[in-house]
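User: I'm writing a tutorial on reading structure tokens. Could you give me a worked example: one chain, its sequence, then its tokens, then a sentence or two explaining what the tokens reveal?
Assistant: Sure. Here is the example chain.
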Amino acid sequence: MPFPSRYRIDRRVAAAILSVAAVVVLLAIAIRDPALGKRLVSENNVVEWLQVVLAGTAGVLALRDARAARRAGKPLTLDVAIIGAMAIICIGEVDLDRVLFGTKIISTRFFVDGRRWIVWRALAVLVIVGAPLALGIWLLVHVRELWRAGMTGLRRPWGQTAAFGVALFLAVEVFEKKLSRISWLPQYFAEEVLELVGMICILVGVAARRRR
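And here are its predicted structure tokens:
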């Protein structure tokens, strides 16, 4: 039985409460035990894996939405965009290229390194470059549909919540170096915690959209 509307928490308020709670807890840990705070936000540690879990959950919810939309004959462009974005975030956070190929292939000469097996380089192009490129081309073909769905979402609380999360996540990527060097915080603390906040907002928004 659904709760009466007066007992429901606005999606934006829910995201704000969860975000503040996450920041307060992690900041308290960093102040109380700087060494532990630094470990929590280090590469392949708790905060980074929390981001992966949240992004993966949002992607799964969007995938279920896409399947439902397809069965109902409705557009699924926005769902595909969300799935793709969450997959890219997960790949970036777990350093999939380093896991599969032993190096960061985008920022190195991996593709043109003659010492690498050509089949290995071709697979890297397919997995790391080809899939995102194909997604981008597909979304460009359906850009009008994506624009309409996005504008519709921005007029609703779930869309505003998710859009804020996306904007925050992108802003952190742009100012990554400055955020990672705040003197009174452990290295990477601000960057990783703000990315976590962004992912919380994205998941709350996507989950709220699905309930609609």
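What the tokens reveal: The first helix runs from residue 11 to 32. Residues 9-211 form one domain.
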